[in-house]
Write a structure and sequence with these properties.
Helix 6 runs parallel beside helix 7. The longest helix is centred in the C-terminal third of the chain and has 17 residues. The chain is α/β, with parallel strands linked by helices. The protein is built from 9 helices and 12 strands. 28% of the residues are buried.
Length: 331
Protein backbone atom coordinates (compact mmCIF):
# COMPACT_ATOMS: atom_id res chain seq x y z
CA UNK A 1 0.00 0.00 0.00
CA UNK A 2 1.44 3.46 -0.98
CA UNK A 3 2.11 6.09 1.76
CA UNK A 4 0.93 9.72 1.20
CA UNK A 5 2.95 12.82 2.29
CA UNK A 6 0.89 15.53 3.95
CA UNK A 7 1.97 19.03 2.74
CA UNK A 8 1.98 21.99 5.09
CA UNK A 9 1.07 25.32 3.35
CA UNK A 10 4.33 26.94 4.53
CA UNK A 11 6.53 24.08 3.48
CA UNK A 12 7.70 23.64 -0.09
CA UNK A 13 9.21 20.29 -0.96
CA UNK A 14 11.24 19.64 -4.06
CA UNK A 15 9.56 17.58 -6.70
CA UNK A 16 10.53 13.93 -6.45
CA UNK A 17 12.39 12.38 -9.34
CA UNK A 18 10.14 10.68 -11.85
CA UNK A 19 9.44 7.03 -11.06
CA UNK A 20 8.57 4.33 -13.54
CA UNK A 21 4.90 3.46 -13.67
CA UNK A 22 4.12 0.50 -11.42
CA UNK A 23 3.01 -2.65 -13.18
CA UNK A 24 -0.73 -3.02 -13.22
CA UNK A 25 -2.19 -5.67 -10.96
CA UNK A 26 -4.77 -7.70 -12.74
CA UNK A 27 -7.04 -10.04 -10.83
CA UNK A 28 -6.62 -13.71 -11.55
CA UNK A 29 -9.64 -15.74 -12.66
CA UNK A 30 -10.35 -16.46 -9.00
CA UNK A 31 -10.70 -12.62 -8.45
CA UNK A 32 -7.77 -12.57 -5.99
CA UNK A 33 -4.49 -10.63 -6.48
CA UNK A 34 -1.37 -12.68 -6.98
CA UNK A 35 1.94 -11.73 -5.31
CA UNK A 36 5.31 -13.41 -5.27
CA UNK A 37 6.11 -14.61 -1.78
CA UNK A 38 9.25 -16.20 -0.36
CA UNK A 39 9.36 -19.95 -0.58
CA UNK A 40 7.51 -21.41 2.43
CA UNK A 41 9.33 -23.48 4.98
CA UNK A 42 8.71 -27.22 4.67
CA UNK A 43 5.64 -28.40 6.51
CA UNK A 44 5.67 -31.45 8.72
CA UNK A 45 3.09 -33.91 7.45
CA UNK A 46 1.57 -36.11 10.09
CA UNK A 47 0.39 -39.56 9.23
CA UNK A 48 -1.76 -41.82 11.33
CA UNK A 49 0.06 -44.72 12.91
CA UNK A 50 -3.00 -46.84 12.25
CA UNK A 51 -2.48 -48.92 9.10
CA UNK A 52 -4.57 -48.09 6.06
CA UNK A 53 -7.16 -50.81 5.74
CA UNK A 54 -8.20 -50.12 2.16
CA UNK A 55 -7.73 -53.03 -0.18
CA UNK A 56 -4.86 -52.43 -2.56
CA UNK A 57 -7.21 -52.61 -5.53
CA UNK A 58 -9.09 -49.57 -4.19
CA UNK A 59 -6.15 -47.36 -3.25
CA UNK A 60 -5.39 -46.01 -6.70
CA UNK A 61 -9.00 -45.08 -7.38
CA UNK A 62 -9.42 -43.40 -4.04
CA UNK A 63 -6.14 -41.49 -3.76
CA UNK A 64 -7.25 -38.50 -5.82
CA UNK A 65 -10.52 -38.20 -3.91
CA UNK A 66 -8.74 -38.35 -0.57
CA UNK A 67 -5.87 -36.00 -1.43
CA UNK A 68 -7.94 -33.22 -3.02
CA UNK A 69 -11.55 -32.78 -4.15
CA UNK A 70 -12.13 -33.17 -7.90
CA UNK A 71 -12.70 -29.95 -9.81
CA UNK A 72 -15.34 -29.18 -12.37
CA UNK A 73 -14.65 -27.13 -15.49
CA UNK A 74 -15.86 -24.04 -13.63
CA UNK A 75 -13.26 -24.44 -10.88
CA UNK A 76 -15.81 -25.44 -8.20
CA UNK A 77 -15.25 -28.68 -6.25
CA UNK A 78 -17.53 -31.55 -7.17
CA UNK A 79 -19.67 -33.30 -4.60
CA UNK A 80 -17.73 -35.71 -2.43
CA UNK A 81 -18.38 -39.41 -2.75
CA UNK A 82 -20.03 -40.72 0.44
CA UNK A 83 -20.79 -44.35 -0.42
CA UNK A 84 -19.82 -46.64 -3.27
CA UNK A 85 -21.12 -50.21 -3.37
CA UNK A 86 -19.84 -52.55 -6.07
CA UNK A 87 -21.14 -56.06 -6.76
CA UNK A 88 -22.05 -56.64 -3.10
CA UNK A 89 -23.15 -60.20 -2.28
CA UNK A 90 -24.20 -61.50 1.13
CA UNK A 91 -25.78 -64.53 2.78
CA UNK A 92 -27.61 -65.23 6.03
CA UNK A 93 -24.78 -66.14 8.40
CA UNK A 94 -26.48 -69.20 9.89
CA UNK A 95 -28.19 -70.81 6.89
CA UNK A 96 -25.87 -69.48 4.15
CA UNK A 97 -28.92 -68.56 2.08
CA UNK A 98 -27.92 -65.91 -0.44
CA UNK A 99 -29.89 -62.66 -0.18
CA UNK A 100 -27.79 -59.99 -1.92
CA UNK A 101 -26.71 -61.00 -5.42
CA UNK A 102 -24.61 -58.13 -6.72
CA UNK A 103 -25.80 -54.71 -5.47
CA UNK A 104 -24.31 -51.58 -7.05
CA UNK A 105 -24.99 -48.10 -5.68
CA UNK A 106 -23.20 -44.74 -5.58
CA UNK A 107 -24.21 -41.94 -3.20
CA UNK A 108 -22.71 -38.42 -3.11
CA UNK A 109 -23.04 -35.83 -0.36
CA UNK A 110 -26.30 -33.92 -0.27
CA UNK A 111 -28.27 -36.67 -2.04
CA UNK A 112 -31.41 -38.58 -1.01
CA UNK A 113 -31.70 -42.09 -2.45
CA UNK A 114 -34.85 -44.20 -2.10
CA UNK A 115 -34.83 -47.98 -2.41
CA UNK A 116 -38.15 -49.63 -3.21
CA UNK A 117 -39.15 -53.22 -3.90
CA UNK A 118 -41.35 -56.11 -2.89
CA UNK A 119 -41.07 -57.75 0.51
CA UNK A 120 -38.15 -60.17 0.45
CA UNK A 121 -36.31 -58.36 -2.35
CA UNK A 122 -33.31 -57.61 -0.11
CA UNK A 123 -33.88 -53.96 0.88
CA UNK A 124 -33.59 -54.30 4.65
CA UNK A 125 -30.80 -56.88 4.32
CA UNK A 126 -28.83 -54.41 2.24
CA UNK A 127 -29.11 -51.74 4.93
CA UNK A 128 -28.23 -54.17 7.72
CA UNK A 129 -25.16 -55.41 5.84
CA UNK A 130 -23.97 -51.81 5.48
CA UNK A 131 -24.11 -51.23 9.25
CA UNK A 132 -22.46 -54.59 10.04
CA UNK A 133 -25.39 -56.62 11.39
CA UNK A 134 -24.02 -59.97 12.65
CA UNK A 135 -26.87 -62.01 11.12
CA UNK A 136 -25.39 -61.51 7.66
CA UNK A 137 -22.09 -62.46 6.05
CA UNK A 138 -20.58 -60.64 3.08
CA UNK A 139 -19.35 -63.06 0.42
CA UNK A 140 -18.18 -60.68 -2.30
CA UNK A 141 -17.93 -57.15 -3.63
CA UNK A 142 -16.75 -53.96 -1.97
CA UNK A 143 -18.19 -51.05 0.03
CA UNK A 144 -16.29 -47.77 0.38
CA UNK A 145 -17.61 -45.19 2.86
CA UNK A 146 -15.94 -41.75 2.95
CA UNK A 147 -12.79 -43.23 1.42
CA UNK A 148 -12.55 -46.18 3.82
CA UNK A 149 -13.22 -49.88 3.35
CA UNK A 150 -16.47 -50.22 5.28
CA UNK A 151 -16.34 -54.02 5.31
CA UNK A 152 -13.13 -53.95 7.36
CA UNK A 153 -14.83 -51.98 10.17
CA UNK A 154 -16.69 -53.33 13.18
CA UNK A 155 -20.28 -52.17 13.65
CA UNK A 156 -19.35 -49.60 16.32
CA UNK A 157 -16.56 -48.22 14.12
CA UNK A 158 -19.04 -47.72 11.28
CA UNK A 159 -21.32 -45.76 13.59
CA UNK A 160 -18.50 -43.56 14.88
CA UNK A 161 -17.36 -42.97 11.29
CA UNK A 162 -20.72 -41.35 10.49
CA UNK A 163 -23.12 -44.15 9.51
CA UNK A 164 -26.56 -44.33 11.16
CA UNK A 165 -29.46 -46.74 10.76
CA UNK A 166 -33.05 -46.26 11.84
CA UNK A 167 -34.52 -49.75 12.14
CA UNK A 168 -37.92 -50.79 10.86
CA UNK A 169 -38.77 -52.18 14.32
CA UNK A 170 -36.65 -50.30 16.93
CA UNK A 171 -35.71 -52.44 19.94
CA UNK A 172 -36.58 -51.63 23.54
CA UNK A 173 -33.74 -51.22 26.08
CA UNK A 174 -35.14 -51.66 29.59
CA UNK A 175 -33.28 -49.90 32.40
CA UNK A 176 -31.57 -47.33 30.15
CA UNK A 177 -33.12 -43.88 30.00
CA UNK A 178 -33.24 -41.95 26.76
CA UNK A 179 -31.19 -39.08 28.16
CA UNK A 180 -28.37 -41.37 29.32
CA UNK A 181 -28.42 -43.39 26.11
CA UNK A 182 -28.20 -40.29 23.92
CA UNK A 183 -25.48 -38.65 26.02
CA UNK A 184 -23.32 -41.80 26.04
CA UNK A 185 -23.68 -42.21 22.28
CA UNK A 186 -22.89 -38.56 21.60
CA UNK A 187 -19.89 -38.48 23.94
CA UNK A 188 -18.53 -41.63 22.32
CA UNK A 189 -18.53 -39.77 19.01
CA UNK A 190 -16.88 -36.71 20.59
CA UNK A 191 -14.17 -38.94 22.03
CA UNK A 192 -13.59 -40.38 18.55
CA UNK A 193 -13.12 -36.82 17.27
CA UNK A 194 -10.75 -35.93 20.12
CA UNK A 195 -13.25 -33.61 21.81
CA UNK A 196 -14.06 -33.43 25.54
CA UNK A 197 -17.22 -35.03 26.85
CA UNK A 198 -20.29 -32.91 27.55
CA UNK A 199 -21.67 -32.85 31.06
CA UNK A 200 -25.34 -33.35 31.85
CA UNK A 201 -26.30 -29.66 31.63
CA UNK A 202 -24.15 -28.97 28.57
CA UNK A 203 -25.65 -31.95 26.78
CA UNK A 204 -29.20 -30.92 27.65
CA UNK A 205 -28.57 -27.50 26.13
CA UNK A 206 -27.37 -29.25 22.95
CA UNK A 207 -30.30 -31.69 22.96
CA UNK A 208 -33.25 -29.38 23.69
CA UNK A 209 -33.56 -27.77 20.19
CA UNK A 210 -33.54 -31.25 18.66
CA UNK A 211 -36.54 -32.28 20.76
CA UNK A 212 -38.46 -29.44 19.15
CA UNK A 213 -37.35 -30.61 15.70
CA UNK A 214 -39.02 -34.02 16.15
CA UNK A 215 -41.92 -32.65 18.23
CA UNK A 216 -41.06 -34.69 21.34
CA UNK A 217 -41.78 -33.64 24.92
CA UNK A 218 -39.01 -33.50 27.51
CA UNK A 219 -40.59 -36.27 29.60
CA UNK A 220 -39.51 -38.76 26.90
CA UNK A 221 -35.94 -38.27 28.09
CA UNK A 222 -36.63 -39.92 31.45
CA UNK A 223 -38.33 -42.96 29.91
CA UNK A 224 -36.39 -46.10 29.02
CA UNK A 225 -35.33 -46.35 25.40
CA UNK A 226 -38.42 -47.25 23.33
CA UNK A 227 -39.99 -49.12 26.27
CA UNK A 228 -43.78 -48.75 26.07
CA UNK A 229 -43.46 -46.32 23.16
CA UNK A 230 -46.09 -46.25 20.41
CA UNK A 231 -45.01 -46.82 16.81
CA UNK A 232 -44.89 -43.09 16.15
CA UNK A 233 -42.92 -42.41 19.34
CA UNK A 234 -40.35 -45.05 18.41
CA UNK A 235 -39.84 -43.53 14.96
CA UNK A 236 -39.56 -40.04 16.42
CA UNK A 237 -37.02 -41.37 18.89
CA UNK A 238 -34.95 -42.86 16.05
CA UNK A 239 -34.88 -39.52 14.24
CA UNK A 240 -33.95 -37.81 17.51
CA UNK A 241 -30.94 -40.14 17.75
CA UNK A 242 -30.01 -39.20 14.18
CA UNK A 243 -30.31 -35.50 15.01
CA UNK A 244 -28.06 -35.89 18.06
CA UNK A 245 -25.36 -37.93 16.33
CA UNK A 246 -25.36 -35.90 13.11
CA UNK A 247 -24.45 -38.82 10.81
CA UNK A 248 -23.09 -38.22 7.32
CA UNK A 249 -25.17 -41.09 5.90
CA UNK A 250 -28.52 -42.09 7.42
CA UNK A 251 -30.13 -45.40 6.45
CA UNK A 252 -33.85 -45.08 7.21
CA UNK A 253 -35.67 -48.41 6.98
CA UNK A 254 -39.41 -47.81 6.50
CA UNK A 255 -39.63 -44.88 8.89
CA UNK A 256 -43.15 -44.29 7.54
CA UNK A 257 -44.58 -47.68 8.50
CA UNK A 258 -47.17 -47.79 11.26
CA UNK A 259 -47.48 -44.01 11.61
CA UNK A 260 -50.65 -41.97 11.85
CA UNK A 261 -50.93 -38.77 9.80
CA UNK A 262 -49.54 -36.45 12.48
CA UNK A 263 -46.57 -38.69 13.34
CA UNK A 264 -45.83 -39.22 9.64
CA UNK A 265 -45.69 -35.49 9.00
CA UNK A 266 -43.55 -34.90 12.11
CA UNK A 267 -41.02 -37.56 11.06
CA UNK A 268 -40.86 -36.38 7.44
CA UNK A 269 -40.45 -32.76 8.56
CA UNK A 270 -37.67 -33.75 10.97
CA UNK A 271 -35.77 -35.65 8.27
CA UNK A 272 -36.02 -32.67 5.92
CA UNK A 273 -34.78 -30.42 8.72
CA UNK A 274 -31.67 -32.57 9.10
CA UNK A 275 -30.70 -32.56 5.42
CA UNK A 276 -27.66 -30.46 4.55
CA UNK A 277 -25.42 -30.13 1.46
CA UNK A 278 -22.87 -32.44 3.12
CA UNK A 279 -24.94 -35.35 4.46
CA UNK A 280 -26.97 -37.98 2.65
CA UNK A 281 -29.96 -40.25 3.22
CA UNK A 282 -30.82 -43.72 1.98
CA UNK A 283 -34.57 -44.32 2.39
CA UNK A 284 -36.21 -47.73 2.25
CA UNK A 285 -39.93 -47.40 1.63
CA UNK A 286 -42.94 -48.94 -0.07
CA UNK A 287 -44.94 -45.77 -0.49
CA UNK A 288 -44.96 -42.77 -2.77
CA UNK A 289 -46.38 -40.52 -0.04
CA UNK A 290 -43.07 -40.42 1.85
CA UNK A 291 -41.21 -39.40 -1.30
CA UNK A 292 -43.66 -36.54 -1.82
CA UNK A 293 -42.48 -35.11 1.53
CA UNK A 294 -38.79 -36.09 1.35
CA UNK A 295 -37.77 -35.37 -2.23
CA UNK A 296 -35.39 -38.07 -3.55
CA UNK A 297 -32.43 -37.43 -5.82
CA UNK A 298 -33.09 -40.79 -7.42
CA UNK A 299 -35.09 -43.96 -6.84
CA UNK A 300 -33.84 -47.54 -7.10
CA UNK A 301 -35.97 -50.64 -7.56
CA UNK A 302 -34.59 -53.76 -5.90
CA UNK A 303 -35.57 -57.23 -7.05
CA UNK A 304 -34.13 -60.62 -6.16
CA UNK A 305 -31.17 -59.21 -4.27
CA UNK A 306 -30.00 -56.55 -6.71
CA UNK A 307 -30.95 -53.10 -8.02
CA UNK A 308 -32.63 -53.60 -11.37
CA UNK A 309 -33.81 -50.10 -12.25
CA UNK A 310 -32.95 -46.50 -11.29
CA UNK A 311 -34.90 -43.34 -12.07
CA UNK A 312 -36.52 -40.19 -10.68
CA UNK A 313 -39.82 -39.64 -8.85
CA UNK A 314 -41.74 -40.73 -11.95
CA UNK A 315 -40.53 -44.27 -11.26
CA UNK A 316 -42.30 -44.28 -7.88
CA UNK A 317 -45.40 -42.76 -9.48
CA UNK A 318 -45.50 -45.54 -12.07
CA UNK A 319 -45.02 -48.08 -9.30
CA UNK A 320 -47.94 -46.61 -7.35
CA UNK A 321 -50.14 -46.77 -10.42
CA UNK A 322 -49.19 -50.05 -12.09
CA UNK A 323 -47.35 -52.09 -9.43
CA UNK A 324 -44.08 -53.98 -9.59
CA UNK A 325 -45.16 -56.22 -12.46
CA UNK A 326 -45.14 -53.25 -14.83
CA UNK A 327 -41.67 -52.26 -13.62
CA UNK A 328 -40.41 -55.81 -14.07
CA UNK A 329 -41.60 -55.94 -17.67
CA UNK A 330 -39.77 -52.71 -18.52
CA UNK A 331 -36.27 -54.00 -17.78
Amino acid sequence: MALSLFHHPSLTLPSPPPQPSPPSLRPSPSTSLQFTLPAPRPLLLLRSSRPNRLHSSLRAGLSSAVDSPPQTSGGQPEKKLILQVKDLTAVIAESKQQILKGVNLTVYEGEVHAVMGKNGSGKSTFAKVLVGHPDYEVTGGSVVFKGQDLLEMEADERSLAGLFMSFQSPVEIPGVSNINFLRMAYNAKREKLGLPELGVFEFYAYLYPKLELVNMKTDFLDRNVNEGFSGGEKKRNEILQLAVLGAELALLDEIDSGLDVDAFQDVAKAVNGLLTPTNSVLLITHYLRLLQFIKPTCIHIMENGKIVKTGDISLAEALEKDGYEAIAKSH
